[in-house]
Amino acid sequence: MSPQGDARVSCRPTNLYPSPKLKPRAWLRHTPYLNGKCRFGRTSRQHVECRQPGTAATLAIRIGARLSCTPDIDINDINKESNMSKNIVFLDRATLPADYAFRFSFPHTLAEHPQTAPEDTAARLAGAHIAATNKVRITAEHLAANPQLEMIAVCATGSDHIDTAAARAAGVAVCNVPAYGSEAVAEHAFMLMIALMRNLPAYRRDLRAGLWQNSPFFCHFGAPIRDLHGKTLAVFGRGGIGGTLAGYARAFGMHVVFAEHKNAAVVREGYVSFDTALQQADVLSLHCPLTPQTRHLIGEAELRTLKPGAVLINCGRGGLVDETALLAALKYGTLGGAGLDVLEQEPPKSGNPLLKADLPHLIITPHIAWASDSARQKMCDTVAANIEAFAAGKPQNLVL
């Protein structure tokens, strides 16, 4: 394999317009297919031309220098920054489908690590121009130690594990994958909702204990069973997932309300106040990012505000819910149930009190709501497209 791995250098007719945010010197660095023997020349036409030896293809890029290819002068001898090979590193490749092959049309090297411990992150970013991460944290310290880094490709929608402010200050683009799992996560949340409203975990426990087998009747009555029809679903987060879940709920005859931001001075059209949503909810489902404003969005006071028997669903981020308060509400309060696909610490420690609780009205799944086969395929396709677009000078799905 060549030093560039699977990279293939080509030159084909196209027009590429790099981001105006890039400094002029960096524009060339973000332009694909410029390879081979080249020289710089001044021109007033505000573009660059590249003619690969033996081809008639031309690339035009809006920058202030003219670049013409010849067979005897290496561009690297003129300007190191114009070397178009990109070093790409995947920090937690094992979280993505093993059979998905990432291929890029521009010259590159590709390093894939199954997982990366926090103490190894800085070293694995060394020399990388593009870093792909699903959940590995990239901090201000990592960015300061790696000034060559140009892009962070987030293999997810949420970017709370990236110091986006530091990335912005360093001029590092952060691109995510919006809406790839709207159906997958909404279906998972709906599954948790149905299971808890009908108390499936409790009946499964009774079945294992032999209560049905020893029943004097044809059935076994245990925990309450509640229909979704006519109940109220309160959704916090009106993005793709929240909107999709609302559609599913309406199809089952539920009334849906969207909760306004906590302590908002004005309630927008189509929303109800946060406290009103809590008071009306038979089911409360969280689908919002984790920010300083939403951390512990649901705590002791909010759990007390929910009506008796209400069900809480969290397929967003673990930090949205105060786990200590939640466990107390499940054990000693009137909360009807909780369905969690996320926890504050992931992976959780073996002694996590929620995992040890073994409560029949608590369902915990291991952060897999997003991970349907079709959603993971779409996510990988978008990550690849984000990297390709960035290398072409047309960054997309920017978080910053």
UniProtKB/TrEMBL annotation:
Q: Where is the D-isomer specific 2-hydroxyacid dehydrogenase NAD-binding domain?
A: 190-369
- UniProt-recorded Gene Ontology molecular function terms: hydroxypyruvate reductase (NADH) activity; NAD binding
What family does the database annotate? Answer: Belongs to the D-isomer specific 2-hydroxyacid dehydrogenase family.
Q: Identify the residues that the record assigns to the D-isomer specific 2-hydroxyacid dehydrogenase catalytic domain, covering every copy.
A: 115-398
E.C. numbers: 1.1.1.29
Report keywords, A-Z. Answer: NAD, Oxidoreductase
Q: Top-level EC class, please?
A: oxidoreductase
Pfam families in the record: 2-Hacid_dh, 2-Hacid_dh_C
Q: What is this protein called?
A: Glycerate dehydrogenase
Entry's PANTHER family? D-ISOMER SPECIFIC 2-HYDROXYACID DEHYDROGENASE CATALYTIC DOMAIN-CONTAINING PROTEIN-RELATED, D-ISOMER SPECIFIC 2-HYDROXYACID DEHYDROGENASE FAMILY PROTEIN (AFU_ORTHOLOGUE AFUA_1G13630)
Judging by the UniProt lineage, the source's domain of life is: Bacteria
| Ligase keyword on record | no
Q: Which organism is it from?
A: Neisseria bacilliformis ATCC BAA-1200
Name the InterPro entries on file. Answer: D-iso_2-hydroxyacid_DH_PdxB (IPR050418), D-isomer_2_OHA_DH_cat_dom (IPR006139), D-isomer_DH_CS (IPR029753), D-isomer_DH_NAD-bd (IPR006140), NAD(P)-bd_dom_sf (IPR036291)
